[in-house]
Amino acid sequence: MSTMDGIINTVSANIPMAPLLGLLKPNGKMIMVGLPEKPMEIPPFALVATNKTLAGSLIGGMRDTQEMLDLAAKHNVTADIEVIGAEYVNTAMERLAKADVRYRFVIDIGNTLDKAAATTTE
């Protein structure tokens, strides 16, 4: 709770927003790029009490995104990425600050969660 400066929310499903807003530090920012089909419930107190910001950026809906992915696949257009685990995010941010990044970072949350679950069950 209250540990993140910012969140880029790419989720297009309807999910509770209060827990995500709770992760932000005071003055934190959440940028929405995923577009749920149904209206979201935003608890105003979670924003106002700690001066948090909720903003959006229109990058296209799911249909547009799928169309773009299909076109890229058809023409063999790929992206150069560096896949990292969540435990590497702080190092990745340091590398960004030093301009020591050749590719985009992609955070592999699924494998990070799987590793964490495996560790807790051992």
Automatic annotation (TrEMBL):
Keywords: Metal-binding, Oxidoreductase, Zinc. It comes from the Eukaryota. Residues 4-73 form the Alcohol dehydrogenase-like C-terminal domain. The keyword Zinc applies. One of its GO terms (molecular function) is oxidoreductase activity, acting on the CH-OH group of donors, NAD or NADP as acceptor. It holds the Pfam family ADH_zinc_N. PANTHER family: ALDEHYDE REDUCTASE. This is Alcohol dehydrogenase-like C-terminal domain-containing protein.
